[in-house]
Predict the structure.
Amino acid sequence: MAKKAAGRPAKYWLFKSEADCYSIDHLAKEKNQTTFWDGVRNYQARNMLRDDVQPGDGVLFYHSNSDPLAVAGICEVVRAGYPDHTAFDKSAQHYDAKSSPDNPTWYMVDLKLVKKFEQQVTRDQLKAEPALDKMVVLQKGSRLSIMPVTAEEWKTVCRLGGVKLPM
DNA sequence: GCCAACGTTGGC
DNA sequence: GCCAACGTTGGC
């Protein structure tokens, strides 16, 4: 467990990834099971990565555009927001000419895998849970790839995933 | 600064 | 594959 961010209790987030593109199994194979979360190109999500997401925060790893749609496990933020260098790389998929090292537009954080759920928690399960009916990811039209999660929602999803009060 | 057109996301 | 929702672009 990384040390907590100074000055505030842990917050919780949901990070979306297309399972075809980068799934929790990819993360599990990374060195130290840690990766940088690059490619976010949306200002609202950027603001959260840059300003709000802190080491020690909990992250639900959600598979979008996959079958099944599901929370696959939980991660921990191990590095706070810093410039997304893939935006500077012309050969990268998410290259952005408007972002420069001197004045970066886009940010990323580092994530470490905490636990892949034995049984992933499907979107249908989430929807069936009254405690989660306000969860941002379940709201119609919510397309952000980074979303806030309440402590209650975090606990509920962890319980559904068979993880006992991990953090 | 408005808003129509367009592109993308992502659940279904 | 469809389409609703949303973000961005660009003409005016």
Summary: Strands of chain A lie at 12-18, 34-36, 58-64, 70-83, 107-122, 146-149.
